[in-house]
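Can you please make up a whole protein chain along with its backbone structure tokens because I've never seen that pairing?
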Amino acid sequence: MSAAPPLLPPGFLVRLAAFEIASRRPCGVLPGGVHLVSRAGAGTLFRDHRPYAAGDDPRTVDWAVLARHDILVTKQFEAEEAVRVVLLLDASGSMAAGDRARLRSAARGLAVVGAIALGRGDTVDFLAVPGGRRRTFRGRASLPALLEAVGAAEAGGRTDLAANFRAGLAGVRGRALAVVASDFLDPRGACAGIDLLRRRGWEVRALQPVAPADLEPPPQGRVVLVDAETGEERVLEVTAEVRASLAEAASRRLRALQGALRSRGVPWVRLPTDEGAEGALLASLRRAGVLA
């Protein structure tokens, strides 16, 4: 059996140096008296753009915006002491259904955010649930260890994101930016884990791997549906009408999750599940405002 390809190709990692982790906190003085700064460097978090002014550090100019729109703007950043990035991977049984594409896609999305955070000098925590142990990574030299930890997660067990986050993050104090990668098929509610993190006062980002097959109902005929987490089986006679109903239900669940996250101010990213889609992954993260 051939080994799985690397979670993130080495050449792709080089591209990540051009990106920042975006935050939607308002500019100005942050909780705890932390001020925004107008310089890039170790341990910074992108906040916003503002028009370029004479005397600004050229390193803060967003050259991509200049090239694309012929507008001269500078990036604003938050100082190092306010930054902690927490990567949370749903490794429940439903994430391994089929060909494990959901689990690998979720791991890849978190790996991108983690690589950028470590490159900026941020502290990164990683926790896979259920059953995982939280690990903390600091400095660029720890990137291989982070990629190994994220890529090695195996799926199994039942989904209870709120309970798992509460137990696994018990030792984490203060402010943080949490990135949750999950299919959000949580019996206690799709946003149960998200809400627990928000009650901590954390910023939250939601990454959801969605394969085309997730929205495509089974073919007509008699099929056996198996719950990936409980093993429960159900025999279903699929007709044309049933297929249409299942397809609409899948789309409705996706729309409902997006709406629920939007109402909470949580950016949502649909992650591509095919291998070699790193460009599409970056585009999705930027479009949703997770990266800048």
Summary: Residues 26-43 have pLDDT under 50 and may be disordered. The helical segments are 10-15, 63-69, 101-119, 143-151, 161-168, 192-199, 240-263, 278-287. Residues 16-80 form one domain.
